[in-house]
Each structure stands twice: as C-alpha cells, then as structure tokens.
Amino acid sequence: MTDPRLSRYLDLYRRGEQLVLAQVASLDDAACAEPCALPGWSRSDLLAHLARNADALGNLLAWARTGVETPMYASAEQRAADIAASATQAPGPLRADVTSASDRLAAAVEALPAAAWDAPVRTASGRAIAAAEVPWMRVRESWVHAVDLRTGVGFADLPPEVVVPLIDEVAGGLAGREDCPVLTLIASDGGGPWTVGPAAADPTEVRGTAHDLLAWIIGRHDGAGTLATPDATPPPPAPRWL
User: Fold this and answer.
1) Domains in the chain, please, with CATH?
2) Which segments of 127-208 are extended strands (E)?
C-alpha cells in the first residue's frame, strides 16, 4: 500500500522547490561566489549540490518506474567529483543548471505511475525505502538549503509540517547513539518531546521553539541565546545527522 504520507510529501516537495528556486534566482553573479552557511562551501558549491541531488533522486524514480537498478550515485567519489565540476560553471549556467535539474525531477515525479510509488529502491547509504519517500528526501534538501543559501530565509520561515517531522527523523536517528549527548528536547510551540543519546534515567532538558531545536539538531546553530537548559548554558553539539 502506498505510504499515506505521500500526498503531504508531494505538497511539501513542490512548495520547497518554489522556495529554493526563488532564492537561487535572487542571487546575482557576485553573490554566487560568496560563502553559504555550510563551512567551507560557497553558494556555487551549494547550488551544484542542489542540482546533482535532484538528478540523483530522479535516478531513484527511474528505478521505481522501470525496475532497473539505478543508484543515486555511481560512488561517493563520483558524487563529490560531479558536484565539484558543476560548481565551476559560470553563475548564469549554474543557476540554469539548478532550475533544469529541478524541472527534470518534477517531470519524473509527475510521470511516475501510482503503483510505482510502492517500488523498493535504496538511498545512497544503502537504506531500503519505497519510492514514496523520495519526495521527502528532496523536502529535506530544498527547505534546509533555502536557509543555507543565506538569502534571508531563516528556520523560522519553515512550516511546522517540515520542521517537526524533520526533528522526528533526526532525533530518531540519534536515539541510543553513544556519541550523542543525553537530552530531551521540548518544543514550546508543539511537537516532541524527543530524547536523544544513549538511554539514561535523567536526561538534560533542552527547551526552545521547534525551529530553533531543528537548527541545533542539524548543526546549523549552537543554541546559544535560543535554547534553554537548566543551567542556562547552550546544549552540547549534536553529532552529524547525514
């Protein structure tokens, strides 16, 4: 049976593409060379990543449609090389590349037969999923990277239907991890609570808005000035989530 979340995923996917493409279009040539929010990356690097991610997710939809195994990337090395090569394009062609790749993914989404959303595929990490999760994979990319482009969009601009499920996903992956601090996250505006790190009798509470908790848990903010702990210090950093 097709994932009942598919219609919500598709709506958020389409809205996320509109948002991130609007941010891409707002960048002039000089701005493309400036740093984005990701350490060591320029906006051009991030634009290249967005384009190649769209094509990679299109590979998964081709796999679902045809039954022919079509991985997201040939290898981790090839993924990195393709992003690096794409980032060397002049700003105009690079912006056009992002838009064209997004259009190709949209065409693949619209063309996928209803039954194919149940088809099994695998993520780049090897995790088995149904094709119905592919739009959500792009939701993570489009909404978060719209913030990372540093064009004025903030985590507070992301809708709750993106923020809360994304915290659910990341916190679920950090639950039980020995390299994660033992914390219970409590959103003042709804969602959760979420407990991360190895099981413990008395986890430290971290309180804040859901969008501030999201920014912290995915490593975009240290929580200082936005998240509250009992001793009034920022929470320790969360381990890498992807």
Assistant:
1) 6-153 (1.20.120.450), 155-242 (3.30.1050.20)
2) 128-130, 183-187, 194-196, 204-208
